[in-house]
Each structure stands twice: as C-alpha cells, then as structure tokens.
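Notes taken during the Thursday session

The instructor put the following on the board and asked us to keep it in front of us for the whole hour. The protein is Metalloendopeptidase. We were told not to look anything up and to reason only from what is written here. First, the residues (62 in total):
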Amino acid sequence: MHALGFWHEQSRPDRDNFVKILKENIIAGKEHNFNKRNSIDSLGSPYDLQSIMHYGGNAFSK
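Then, after some discussion, the predicted structure tokens were revealed:
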C-alpha cells in the first residue's frame, strides 16, 4: 500500500478526532511511527479504524 502512495491511517491530520495517542506509552525510538502529516489525499474517504493501514491498539507500546 505504501508503494501506491497510501499513508498509515493514524498519520492523517484529523486522527486526533478519532484516536488518542498515548505518547508516554510508546517504545523509545518508535515515536516517529505516530507523526501526523500536515496534509494527505484521503480521496475523500472517512477515517477508518479497521483499515489495513491502521496500526493495532498496542502497536509499538511498552
């Protein structure tokens, strides 16, 4: 999916409206996986918690 230009769902600029990232629980050195993009082309699709491009609830957690 990356090769097609898709970003991880939690990188969307509107992600804070849908999920809460607990930065203190992220493994040291893995914080970059949760950086938000300033803008992306979501092709008009709504935020999708079930997307294959969305990390699981415990991804990179301590």
